[in-house]
Amino acid sequence: MTDLDAWAHVTVVQPGTVPVDELPGRREDGWPEGVTTEPPADPAARRAEVEAETPDLFHSGGAFVLDIPETPPAVWGDGDHVIWAEGEALMIAAPQGVGKTTVALQVVRARLGLQEKVLGYSVHQSGGRVLYLAMDRPAQVQRAAHRLFRHDDRALLNERLVVWKGPPPYDVAQRRDILAVMAQKAKADTVIVDSIKDAAIGISEDAVGAGYNRARQQALREGVQVLELHHTVKKAANGAAPDDLAGVYGSTWLTSGAGSVVSLWGEAGDPVVMWRHLKQPSREVGPFRVVHDHEHGTSEVEVTVDLFALVRRTGVQGLTAMEYAVALFERPNPSRAQKEKARRLLEKRHDAGQLSRLDGAVGGAPARYFLRQAEVHGEVHEA
Fold first, then answer.
1. Over the range 81-107, which residues count as b (16 or more CB within 10 Å of their CB) and which as e?
2. pLDDT tens, residue by residue, 284-295
3. Helix axes of 336-351 and 321-329: crossing angle, nearest 10 degrees
4. What phi and psi values does residue 375 have, to the nearest 5 degrees?
5. Tens digits of per-residue pLDDT, 125-169?
6. Cβ neighbours of 73 (radius 10 Å)
7. Is the previous residue joined to 287 through a cis bond, with omega within 30 degrees of 0?
8. Terminal alpha carbon distance of the chain
9. CA atoms within 13 A on the CB side of 241
10. What is the rounded CA–CA span in Å between residue 129 and residue 113?
11. Cβ atoms of 46 and 38 closer than 8 Å
């Protein structure tokens, strides 16, 4: 057997896919440049090497399954109304100019301890620094932050907030340790990714989406809380706001790996936009309208549907779950899931003693809900 026969299985390691016989130049031993002529590693030795490199991160089944709180610990949320759960990524998806960065910066401000709530829900203060990856139009992020923070905040901002301007040093889907490394280098326990499209190129491809998700999961595993800003498709199939995960742009692995996904919907610059919780770690938060104060960079929830006023207007007819869903979701033909959510909200008020219910015939008319009234000193009051 000749030397050529013995090494016929050796592979080319030079970057690219150029065949061996097309590689330029030859070494003194006659082999083309870029060909490895070392014998393959012993399988047993290679296995020992892999075992040594694999971290011991295993958990016992009992602790993994049973030792968990009743509701997910929240970075942002109250009780079982969790917008952003610890150890899970939150994605805020929206068209351009609808207020993703405005909301994210308020969450940053709360993580720094400068406010307690955002959109009426508590934000847990960060114990470390916040790293803001201002990759998408950093000058606009800078202007938005300038509207929200004050000169008195300078010392705290210098100590607790770190900003990266422009593209990351590596494509995150290719260098899957880069989010964790950047957080470690910044001494940050929170990373804001603004936005995903600037972190990885080609996010509509599943390979890229899966690669980005691996990077996100590694950062989460190392104790970094991750909030991501992303984009929706231009419009849902019926021209309305996206109301499911299919309305989020890109590979399915982007949303599959997120613990919570929120949609903000409106036109660029709108002072009032729609919030929908498309994927939840616990109970759904919303839907509701968000009112932006563009001058000061703040946002609040607008109360739009007064359930009791709506029930009162129905009078002796009562309110059905379908009618409530139409008003709640602003859709003439709400989905089955939306109608079920409206029914659950009505049932919650019924169980609390605030509404009474008249069941329809089995398989026939729907249940109807009425105000439960109590006469006190000759006056009628809502219970």
1. bbbbbbebbbbbbbbeebbbbbbbbbb
2. 998 899 999 989
3. 110
4. -85, 120
5. 998 999 999 999 999 999 999 999 999 999 999 999 999 999 999
6. 13
7. yes
8. 95
9. 24
10. 11
11. no
